[in-house]
Design a protein that fits this description.
The protein contains 45 helices and nine strands. By secondary structure, the chain is mainly alpha-helical. Helix 5 links the parallel strand 4 and strand 5. Helix 15 runs antiparallel to helix 16. The longest helix is centred in the C-terminal third of the chain and has 18 residues. The N terminus and C terminus are likely disordered. InterPro entries: AAA_16 (IPR041664), Sig_transdc_resp-reg_C-effctor (IPR016032), Tscrpt_reg_LuxR_C (IPR000792), WalR-like (IPR039420), WH-like_DNA-bd_sf (IPR036388). One of its GO terms (molecular function) is DNA binding.
Length: 911
């Protein structure tokens, strides 16, 4: 079975809906047209055939280009007229029209002749971009005017880049993209009956990269034992035959000289497959040496296979590039690389020249391998990690069996990891595992393996590999051994294993740049006073740092110290450094830290923006664990904003990975988000059930660090639900943690928790303390929650005017930070007090937020000193603001101010 043979199309909901809309339009009368664009193998033909078979309202024709007529793929207007007359369904090559392409008017006339036939007509034209220029123009002309032809529809399939061609400009279009993981997995299950083990399944999905035709061809190629995991998969998994069958159809029609030039372009790109393309000058020099004229490039561009952009030539479709290189005979590939090597000159091109020579070499060549490895390992070499991975892996292939071969594969794996190529890195590690090696080389390999597993795999396994790496590297490379231990700390932290965090950092003597290890070890042992000095030094040194990994560590240090502004600053710098220094692997992690820091700062919209970008790049980089953390952040933001559906969607996505991979941090944040969503909707009892397992002492399912951050939510939910039994002890435990100063919001949250639990006589002071501390800490969301709870407390005691003032402040805070569900809850409370819910009105709109707070306090009868204590400012500041309030409102006394505030805030609905 092929992808085109399957009647079911996976992952094409949007595209199928667009086609269905066109077909429904034809059934109801008006005509229409749609262009379907996509690269080879993505299912353009399948979508057209699906439309043809599913159109039951009248005749449907599927016309395909005829590759058997050189230079003469003309749209057969005469043949088309006869087909229209006979209602014949055509599946196969279109009849050739010997008199040349039809004029646009002829085509419109042919299609328009169907208007009186009494039933609609669908004409599907596959590979419409392969017709000659005149026929393409006629098709585009007809498609743009199809709306005038009642009951006539045109569905045109074109290559991805051709959708922007002038011939098809103005025609509605839909682009086919590679399938996402879910859709590709569903197709694989259909092809294999769901029998693939996880490892084989992952290999197939990665190799196919969302291309349904390639995924189908790969499964067709494999034997039953290979598909079931009993026998190893062939290497390469997608060989030249498979790639040519899926993507190489257009290559057979090119002149030999164009084929040679394309092979040179593909061979040049082998050094950096994901780079900007091949050096045009290099390719043309090599082509000239082979006797290939420059016009061959024009022919290849005209065929839509490559395009020139500035000094670069690149394939539009990466799959086609692979097909050109892998589908050529080995002798031709070697010749192409030899030509490229001979065309490179100078010291600056030493590595690419050596690498092309190595690509052209036959069999082991230890001498060439040694030279290539030495040049690729030179500290002053300017080359990308992807190119270095290719160079060192080729050096390993040319090496004789032994420790040097293993070391080169291990080094290549590290560069592949840094280039954001985790699957390639794992392949190289597997090659390194096959040979003997020194402990230092084994340690390097385990460090790469552990880091890869931390990004996508069980974090417990990552921790084991990283601790082993540290022990193997310790006697030979103490600095990399420390890197292994710090990465092990990240794995244990992600897994919520406090004991493993401490064990991973313990038992090691002082070393270079050891402040981070020392500070984190002290913090983990609840000695934050000892941790401050070394962690501050980490942050200070980071100001002159450009290494993204160390900037991420410095950002983590800032979060541990409670320096949220510093964490945001360092996260932004880590992101910039990762983007600027060819370190794609760090971009998802930097975005994760930045999103989390913004979340801690209460800037939820910024956190969402960073997490959404992080989610995209994490998926592209194959970092499912990092993606789970981004999903958890997005779930939390959705809970703040009140989008219950998004909370569940992102929390479920986070848990789908967090569960099997042991990501306690992501799982806790996702569950916290669910509880916060319940709390925002007033479902206190449900929130208690969510928060309880995350914060209760003893055996917990929560993360040891996030427990403290979530504990105020648990106390609030428990009090609102009437379940106070555990709250007093929890608050006192929280007080010990808040005293360490690790979270700027903790002091205000502690006062809020005590206000919720205190007797009436003592609660007022706690509410005032909480609001004063919020003024120092900042953050609209947390301050809004305190104001809302205080307003509820005041309303229950029939202090309605005071309650309205606090609730209006809460409403403003929630509206500013986008916490819509909390704003709705606040409006409901305001209505219960008899107050208007539209916010400040009339003259009060002239006041600044601080002036408005002071005016309300004075209207409540507070003296200047009492206002100062309540707002945590000086009496002189209150006096200054109050004079400005009197001037802005045109009042001359506190009594007039009180009356004006009362009228403005209660006039709409007196209470």
């Amino acid at each position: 079975m092929t992808a085109q043979d399957s009647l079911r199309l996976y992952g094409r909901t949007t595209e199928l809906a667009d086609v269905a809309a066109l077909l429904e339009r034809l059934r109801s009368g008006p005509g229409g047209a749609l262009v379907v664009a996509g690269d080879p193998g993505l299912g353009r033909s399948a979508l057209l055939e699906h439309a043809t078979r599913g159109f039951g309202a009248g005749p449907a024709l599927l016309v395909r280009a005829d590759p058997g007529e050189p230079g003469g793929r003309h749209l057969p207007s005469g043949g088309l007229r006869s087909m229209l007359a006979s209602h014949t369904r055509v599946l196969g090559p279109a009849p050739r029209f010997p008199d040349g392409p039809p004029e646009p008017a002829e085509l419109l006339d042919a299609l328009g002749s169907r208007r009186g036939a009494g039933e609609p007509l669908l004409v599907c034209v596959d590979d419409a971009d392969l017709w000659d220029a005149g026929s393409r123009a006629a098709l585009g002309f007809a498609a743009r005017r199809a709306g005038r032809l009642r009951g006539v529809g045109l569905l045109l399939a074109v290559a991805g880049r051709r959708v922007d061609s002038p011939e098809f400009a103005g025609v509605p279009s839909v682009r086919l993209r590679p399938l996402d993981d879910v859709a590709a997995g569903a197709l694989l299950d259909e092809l294999t009956g769901g029998s693939c083990p996880a490892a084989v399944r992952e290999e197939l999905l990665h190799e196919a990269a969302g291309n349904p035709a390639l995924l189908t061809a790969l499964t067709d190629r494999l034997t039953v034992p290979q598909l079931s995991g009993v026998e190893p998969l062939p290497r390469p998994l997608a060989d030249g035959d498979v790639l040519m069958r899926v993507a190489g159809g257009r290559l057979a029609e090119l002149a030999p000289e164009s084929g040679t030039l394309l092979l040179l372009v593909a061979a040049a790109q082998e050094l950096a497959p994901d780079g900007p393309g091949a050096d045009a000058a290099l390719v043309l020099r090599a082509a000239a040496a082979a006797g290939v004229p420059a016009r061959a490039l024009d022919q290849a561009e005209a065929a839509g296979i490559v395009r020139s952009a500035g000094s670069r030539i690149r394939f539009d479709d990466p799959l086609l590039r692979r097909a050109v290189h892998a589908g050529a005979p080995l002798s031709r590939r070697r010749t192409a690389h030899s030509l490229l090597a001979a065309a490179l000159h100078g010291v600056r091109h030493r590595l690419p020249r050596l690498l092309h020579r190595a690509m052209a070499a036959q069999g082991p060549d230890p001498r060439l391998a040694a030279v290539l490895a030495a040049v690729a390992s030179a500290p002053d070499l300017r080359a990308g990690h992807g190119e270095l991975a290719v160079a060192l892996s080729r050096a390993g292939e040319l090496s004789a069996a032994g420790s040097a071969r293993t070391a080169r594969f291990a080094a290549a794996a590290e560069h592949a990891r840094l280039a954001g190529l985790p699957h390639r890195a794992r392949e190289l590690l597997a090659a390194a595992d096959e040979g003997p090696a020194h402990d230092a080389v084994r340690g390097s390999a385990e460090l790469v393996r552990g880091t890869l597993t931390l990004q996508d795999g069980p974090v417990g396994d990552a921790y084991g590999s990283l601790v082993l790496a540290a022990s193997l590297l310790g006697p030979y490379d103490p600095e990399r051994a420390l890197v292994a231990r710090l990465t092990a700390l990240a794995a244990a932290w992600s897994g919520g294993d406090l004991a493993a965090c401490v064990a991973g950092l313990s038992g090691v003597g002082p070393g270079p740049a050891d402040d981070y290890r020392t500070g984190m070890l002290a913090a983990l042992n609840a000695r934050l006073d000892e941790a401050r000095a070394p962690l501050r030094r980490v942050m200070e040194r980071a100001e002159a740092e450009s290494d993204p990994e160390r900037l991420v560590q410095a950002g983590s240090a800032a979060l541990v110290l409670g320096n949220i502004a510093g964490a945001c600053h360092l996260g932004a710098r880590a992101l910039a450094a990762a983007r600027a220094h060819d370190a794609a692997v760090y971009v998802p992690r930097a975005l994760e830290q930045l999103a989390y820091a913004e979340l801690r700062a209460g800037r939820h919209s910024r956190a969402r923006a960073h997490a959404e970008e992080g989610l995209r790049v994490a998926h592209r980089a194959g970092q499912r664990n990092t993606a789970a953390h981004h999903h958890a952040v997005l779930a939390f933001v959705a809970a703040v904003e009140g989008d219950a559906a998004a909370v569940e969607r992102h929390a479920d996505a986070a848990m789908a990975v967090a569960g099997p991979h042991g990501l306690a941090q992501a799982a806790t944040l996702a569950e916290w988000a669910r509880g916060l969503g319940d709390l925002g909707r007033g479902l206190a009892a449900e929130a208690v059930a969510r928060f309880g397992p995350l914060v209760r002492p003893g055996h917990r399912t929560g993360h040891f660090a996030l427990r403290w951050l979530a504990l105020p939510c648990f106390v609030e939910a428990a009090v609102l639900a009437g379940e106070r039994d555990e709250t007093a002890a929890a608050v006192e435990e929280f007080a010990l943690w808040a005293a360490q100063g690790a979270d700027p919001q903790a002091s205000a949250q502690l006062a809020r928790c005590r206000a919720l639990l205190a007797p009436v006589a003592a609660a007022e002071e706690h509410w005032a303390q909480a609001l004063a501390r919020h003024e120092l800490a900042g953050g609209d969301f947390e301050r809004g929650r305190t104001l809302l709870l205080y307003g509820k407390w005041l309303r229950r005691r029939r202090r309605l005017r005071e309650a309205r003032g606090r609730l209006r402040d809460a409403l403003c805070a929630f509206e500013r930070c986008g916490a819509l569900v909390w704003a709705d809850q606040t409006r409901a409370e305001l209505r219960a007090t008899g107050g208007a819910t539209g916010g400040s009105a009339g003259p009060l709109e002239r006041l600044t937020p601080q002036q408005l707070r002071i005016a309300r306090c004075v209207a409540d009868g507070a003296t200047n000193r009492e206002v100062a204590l309540r707002l945590s400012v000086s009496p002189r500041t209150v006096d200054h603001h109050l004079r400005n309030v009197f001037a802005a409102l045109g009042v001359r006394s506190r009594v007039e101010l009180s009356r004006l505030v009362d009228r403005a805030e209660t006039g709409a609905a007196p209470g």
